[in-house]
Amino acid sequence: MDIEQLLINKISSLYQVSSVEVGQHLYWQIGDFQVHAQVLVTSWVVIAISLGLSVAATRNLQTVPTSSQNLIEYALEFIRDLTRTQMGEEEYRPWVPFIGTLFLFIFVSNWSGALFPWRIIQLPHGELAAPTNDINTTAALALLTSIAYFYAGFHKRGLNYFGKYIQPTPVLLPINILEDFTKPLSLSFRLFGNILADELVVAVLVSSVPLFVPVPMMLLGLFTSGIQALIFATLAAAYIGESMEGHH
């Protein structure tokens, strides 16, 4: 009977995980607008953590850097080198803040989902999760990347920028236009899908085998979360760099 009861408990816990309804969210009504409260709250937490760490590490800068200052300087150098690699020596400098903001926000968001048990906070509807665990966040980040992509190309090349749509032949005009729509879609769904899958796997393992098995998966989740932030920032920088290049 003990074994049967244990199996029943495991099946029940798995059912609770699977019973979470996709698209069930908590909303705030502000005037005539509905605000997606779950994403807003967790995004504020992520932004507060990022700002807090940045201020704490840079409020007392030293000629001989401390460990926290070393970490900030390493992160800045990493983002600067990433941007320069994708955009080139002449174009990268104005875009370091944008690419850095994307990378750090996604990185801290992903790690917050892997380290912080958001789901222990009960809500009337839906559940808290990492901001990047919601398609609204990843779609917004991809849309910002697309706006930056078009702005960089038009600012650099003027009306000649639109000539890329008929290169190498006008026959490819529909395909070239479609390509600009698929870029933000692939960015948003790749990030959303990977983070959602990672959190669901950990949730199922914690429910079924709550002791030691989930720990390696959580460590792997930290690694993949960092990789996803790197991929998004790299592709964003590559797209912006591509829009500023001329076509021959």
Automatic annotation (TrEMBL):
Keyword flag Ion transport: yes
GO cellular component, one term: chloroplast thylakoid membrane
Subcellular localization: Membrane; Plastid, Chloroplast thylakoid membrane
Top-rank taxon, per record: Eukaryota
Record-level Gene Ontology MF annotations: proton-transporting ATP synthase activity, rotational mechanism
Main localisation: membrane
Membrane topology, from the record: Multi-pass membrane protein
Alphabetized PROSITE patterns for the sequence: ATPASE_A
Keywords tagged on the record: ATP synthesis, CF(0), Chloroplast, Hydrogen ion transport, Ion transport, Membrane, Plastid, Thylakoid, Transmembrane, Transmembrane helix, Transport
Residue ranges crossing the lipid bilayer per the database entry: 35-57, 95-115, 135-154, 191-213, 219-240
Biological function: Key component of the proton channel; it plays a direct role in the translocation of protons across the membrane.
PANTHER family associated with the record: ATP SYNTHASE SUBUNIT A, CHLOROPLASTIC (PTHR42823:SF3)
Annotated HAMAP family: ATP_synth_a_bact
Family: Belongs to the ATPase A chain family.
Subunit structure: F-type ATPases have 2 components, CF(1) - the catalytic core - and CF(0) - the membrane proton channel. CF(1) has five subunits: alpha(3), beta(3), gamma(1), delta(1), epsilon(1). CF(0) has four main subunits: a, b, b' and c.
Protein name stated in the entry: ATP synthase subunit a, chloroplastic
Organism, as annotated: Trichomanes speciosum
